[in-house]
Hints:
The structure holds two protein chains of two kinds.
Chain A: H1 2-10, H2 20-42, H3 45-71, E1 83-86, E2 91-94, H4 95-116, H5 136-143, H6 151-164, H7 171-189, H8 196-228, H9 233-242, H10 247-265, H11 273-280, H12 283-308, H13 313-336, H14 341-362, H15 365-391, E3 392-394, E4 397-398, H16 408-411, H17 413-427, H18 433-447, H19 451-477, E5 486-487, H20 492-510, H21 513-523
Antiparallel strand pairs in A: 1-2, 3-4, 3-5
Helix pairs in contact in A: 2-3, 2-6, 3-4, 4-6, 4-12, 4-15, 4-20, 4-21, 6-7, 7-8, 7-12, 8-9, 8-10, 8-11, 10-12, 11-12, 11-14, 12-14, 12-15, 13-14, 13-19, 14-15, 14-18, 14-19, 15-17, 15-18, 15-20, 15-21, 17-19, 17-20, 18-19, 18-20
Chain B: H1 2-14, E1 19-20, H2 30-45, H3 53-76, E2 85-95, E3 98-106, H4 108-131, H5 138-157, H6 161-179, H7 186-217, H8 222-228, H9 234-251, H10 259-263, H11 269-278, H12 283-290, H13 292-295, H14 299-322, H15 326-346, H16 352-379, H17 392-395, H18 397-411, H19 417-431, H20 434-463, H21 480-501, H22 505-514, H23 526-547, H24 560-566, H25 571-617, H26 624-646
Parallel strand pairs in B: 1-2
Antiparallel strand pairs in B: 2-3
Helix pairs in contact in B: 2-3, 2-5, 3-4, 3-5, 4-5, 4-11, 4-16, 4-21, 5-6, 6-7, 6-11, 7-9, 9-12, 9-14, 11-16, 12-15, 14-15, 14-20, 14-24, 15-16, 15-19, 15-20, 16-18, 16-19, 16-21, 16-22, 18-20, 18-21, 19-20, 19-21, 20-23
Amino acid sequence: MTSLSGALAAATITPPHIEYGQLSPLLVVFGAAVAGVLVEAFVPRERRRAFHLVIALGGLVAAFALIISVAATPSLFAHGSPGHVVAMGAVGVDGPTLFIQGTIVVLAFVSVLLIAESSHGVSPFAAQAAAVPGSAEEREGLLRGISHTEVYPLTLFAVGGMMLFPAANDLLTMFVALEVLSLPLYLLCGLARRRRLISQEAAMKYFLLGAFSSAFFLFGVAMLYGYSGSVSLSAIAAAAATNVSSATLLYAGIALVGIGLLFKIGAVPFQSWKPDVYQGAPTAVTALMASCTVVSAFGGLLRVFYVAFGQLTWDWRPAMWGVAILTMLAGAIIAITQTDVKRMLAYSSIAHGGFVLTAVVAATAAGLSASLFYLAVYGLTTIGAFAVVTLVRDPAGEANHLSKWAGLGKRSPWLAGVFAFFLLAFAGIPLTSGFAGKFAVFQAAAAGGALPLVIIGVLASAVAAFFYVRVIVLMFFSDPAPDGPTVVTPGLFTGAAVAVGAAATLVFGIAPEPLLALASHAAAHLFVR
Amino acid sequence: MTGTLAGLPMRAASALPTLAAVGVQRTAWLMLVFPLAGALVLLLGGRRTNRFGHVVGVAMPFASFVVAVITFVAMLGYPASQRARDVHMFTWISVGGFHVDAGLLVDQLSISFALLITGVGSLIHLFAVGYMSHDPDRRRFFGYMNLFVAAMLLLVLADNYLLMYAGWEGVGLASYLLIGFWQYKPSAAAAAKKAFVVNRVGVAGFSVAIMLMFATFGTVTYTGVFGQASSAGRGTATALGLLLLLGACAKSAQVPLQSWLLDAMEGPTPVSALIHAATMVTAGVYLIVRSAPIFNLSMTARLAVTVVGAVTLLFGAIIGCAKDDIKKALAGSTMSQIGYMVLAAGLGPAGYVFAIAHLIVHGFFKAGLFLGAGAVKHEMNDEVDMRRFGGLRVVMPITAATFTIGWLAIIGVWPFSGFFTKDPIIAAAFAKGGISGALLGSAAMIGAGITAFYMTRVLLMTFTGHRRWEPDAHPHEVPPVMTSPMIVLAIGAAGAGAFLMLGNRFVDFLSPVTGAPPASRGLITPVSGATLALVVLGAVIAWAMYGRREIPVTAPAARFPVVAARKDLYGDAVNEAVFMRPGQWLTRLSVYFDNRGVDGLVNTLAATVGGSSGRLRRVQTGFVRSYALSMLVGAVLLVGVLLLVRI
């Protein structure tokens, strides 16, 4: 504030220095999102989808290329530097961030493929979100074949927020990114074409609880500002190293900011939104949330806890231990009794969040690189699994109840086989990427002295393996239900999503080394401060 | 004593560097490729290949034989110290510090085997064209047989233990498939299973030996292992030797893992001739001789080998005396003859060459004898009971003649093959010296007498005397496609021994690999004289019992020794008492423990987890207000914990 009034007094405004080159991946995604809004405004309805597809997929490809070119800039990492702080200290560009952004862009690309799938004449999104479910307007919209093409810009805004979130170098930028990524997701959750009530309920719950958690986050930011006099992560770290007074503010701030971040990850006890929202949201959006949002949230968590609270590891570690243990156990145990495949995957996603937390707790470069690797491979497997879920249908839409999946292996051996492969990857069976990921995070955790966490993690994996294998048994060793769902032939986009997920799961299971090397290279110098 | 002394130059010999193969030898891998391609075509081609399947099946081993001969001739062009050549094929496994190349070692030992396998194998394939002509699955049969030839060649040509292991399992698979070829017969299916299970025991020993090698030497190649063998210490060498012996016992049907071979006669007779007489069952002997640098280091392991050989050669001979089934009598004789080879191999460098020489001539005469038995069986409506044979020499003169030559070869009458290869083994056993030498030599000599008895019995009961045929049997001489292989094998049975052994031809050829035995003491020694006397005695007794007297069609009641021999000397009973029943008890006990203990625990655990899952699930009420409350409680806890930690 003082600088602002000083600037006003001098009546000159110093233009902020923006490093456009290093911010270009973000700018391209946001630019594509804005272009999508313009398409909504100016392009006739029937041609919008094609425009959107080109803009969204092209924007994501361009962003990925730019991320690679930034990462390949030698000056950025010259003399062992971890990276640069750009945009007047608002954004950090460093190895882990670029890895996470790259992961998010790839996962978002595959998610957009799923979102765009409409080969069976219907988009998975509502015709008119504003129409009351079951009303005449809704029926009319359906009959006219309308669908919401706003999902593309919404998705791109969310993806842009997700890319900014782990890059944010101060807590206010991080909060803005959090809202930018969350608000479009709240909307997207409510846009399911079928079972609209449960979809709208999911959107409502997600919004209320998300707002609740944002409030916690903001309270935490306020407390940390009160403690250190700054919202910058490095300034907070510096204050924590020197200022020992009013520690209550600091620790309450850590806890409250942590709550906001753990909510997005879906860690226990902040997981309650996840099953309901994952179940109610359109499956393509669930895939986006289960992959990109989780990756982004972990990126933010890692940056905040490694940079701002990096010297306080001993203080936050016990609480994080507790959260990790509760998350792994609760996720795995509650999943056992689930009867809906999307809810089951939601609880599985909670348990996997716990597995990554064990590596986060290690607070080392090894823990960071293991987390990065795990997030990348888990995200690809997850999208593949949800892509399969979209293909198993009955007349009412997707057949998500597990009883309907009985005997699927007899009717569609290929699809059931691919799904079984994804489940084995979730269970961490060797020769799948899930095994390599689990091995990496548990190894990092054990090396970081968290052996009890690893033991609990392995036990939770065993419990989790039970319900994954139970689905496999159900698919292959039960008799098909007479009124069972039909499996639609995957369209080009869904087929591509399944293929990418399966190929990644297999390749990174057999030869994880290149990606592991990339992750550890990215994590070698930790985050920029 | 001479054995240990002669071992010293031998070790130096096998540490010679192996040269890379050049010229025509670089294509030695074609030996494997031909039969493998044949197996693939015949097994994957399905019914489309039925018409020409047997042609492919016979042509492939012949092609391999041609390659083997070319390789052999090329080898003869090199001086003796440069005949071991390595043919690198591709890198097979490379994981961390574990690196295995798939390569072939073409040396004097492996080429001897390759010639035997492809040569005798081709003849038996040819015989099988006639023998299996009425079988609707003849194509599949040839597919399996080609698979066997490929695997057996891999076994003997591999240049490291792991690749040899692959061949070892390959021949086991082919053997299993072929024993159970007529799987609709429960006895054949059971025999296949038995062979499989018994061989698991041996494979366990072999695989642990390979792991021990890798742990000790860091490599599994022959050159690597043998080069460092002397540095490993006596204990490791003994352990390796005993483990390899366990593997050899199962594959070569040596006591105590002999029981499967007699049942394996359920397979088609060409299978018995090729796999269960001439080649596969000798793989154990190959393993021991190939691992000579290891066995040379351990007296204990070699003593164990000689004991196994001596016991088995008597064991098999005694069983052979009491069997009325012609194939089982011959199977007993196979066990016994391999016992001779194992005994010789256990004698160290003094015996290795004789073990391999006997192995090769045994391949000729035993294959010939089995083909003769097969021809008889073929003409007698699949009858194998010798009490229903008799007088067949009149109707099957060629078969009778070749069988007689085989008989002369196996009992070791001068100048037939067995004489030249069996007598040196007996002499070498005596030459070992001490009480053990005397015991082993006596066992081998007595075995020769018993061999003469039971082989004469087989010959007389089958080809002479009155016709005791079933009324519907009308035997004739078999067609030329079957007699010609028998004739070629009979020529080998007659002359191979003299060809190999006279003038030390084979000894000089093989000794760069196995070490040279001490110089021989001439053709007729006191030992060979005594052996010949015993052989004549055995044959005369057999003639007195079976040639002079009428043979009853049903076996007469017998007292203890004969009953025991008829029951395979209680081999199965021992297996049942020592392994099966305790095993069953152990299984029952563990099932009980599993039901009450483990399952109880697991079920309780599962119930606990499932129950808590059900209870926890109810927390998920669906109401946003309760979710928000749970978040608030969690937030309070988290803040509390962080503040408490501070205090």
